[in-house]
Amino acid sequence: MQTGKASSFAHFLFRARLLLLLSSIFGICLCILLLMVGNKALFLWVNTHATPRLGIAATYFSLFGEWFAMVFLIVISLWEDRKKTIGICLSWLLGACFSWTFKIWIFSGLARPYAYFKTKNIDLQLVEGIDVHSFNTFPSGHTLTAFTSIFLFQFLFTGLKNWQIFLLFVLAMGCGLSRIILAQHWPQDVLGGLILGILAGFSGVFLFYKLFPQMERPSADIII
What are 96-126's pLDDT values in tens digits? Predict the structure, then answer.
């Protein structure tokens, strides 16, 4: 560990440029596939070609988007830099608001793949042991949490190496793709979760520096 000066929001944006670039590329590729193939057709292609081993891997990647992943990040922040816990909590609350606003109010009751294809008498390839949900599909909450978390990890640790940033991105991307493989979400849900996750992460950090400008003091860096 090494100590360095805390970053302003502008500095955070600069440090997060690689993570933002990788996430943007993933989002653009997913958007292009959706435009070319279509949401339902793309889901069916993934579901048809998913192997049992891929399904098992998806169950592990999906854990990165569970609520306890964010709790774990908060615990780390309390150990490393308590003042930044405020920014992490703000992002988490904003992400939850974004998710529930779309799921419960705007797109309440919108069918997930399992429920939709059940009405079409199409049997999906499901992963054994996974409880597949039927409604309130948009956005993917797991994807939202995963991408919020990786940007907050960048916020908490100012000395991340490029390979560490790439690893964080792979975890978040894998979590998003796992939701399609596990038949829990449509590809468009994953795209929505990606966008809202980035928005929640950046908004929370922005509010942190606006509300607590006096907290720009030394913070922990990772040097490996």
Answer: 999 999 999 999 999 999 999 999 999 999 9
User: How does DSSP classify residue 105?
Assistant: I
- Nearest-angstrom CA–CA distance, 175 and 181: 10
**pTM to 2 decimals?**
0.91
Contact by Cβ (8 Å): 133, 108: no
How do the residues of the chain divide into helix, strand and coil, expressed in percent and rounded to 5? 70, 5, 25
d(CA 46, CA 127): 13
Strands (E), the chain: 2-4, 219-221
Cα(200)–Cα(96) distance, rounded to whole angstroms?
9
Which amino acid, 151? F
Per-residue model confidence (pLDDT) at position 224: 36
Class in CATH terms, 19-212: mainly alpha
- Residue pair 12/205 in contact (Cβ under 8 Å)? The answer is yes
Distance CA 110, CA 136 (A): 5
178 with 152: CB under 8 angstroms?
no
CA separation, residue 121 to residues 78, 117, 152, 224 (Å)? 50, 6, 42, 53
- Please answer whether residues 94 and 70 qualify as being in contact, where contact means their C-beta atoms are separated by less than 8 angstroms: no
Classify burial at 180, counting beta carbons within 10 Å of its beta carbon; exposed 0-12, middle 13-18, buried 19 or more.
buried
Report residue 4 as tokens: 């360095």
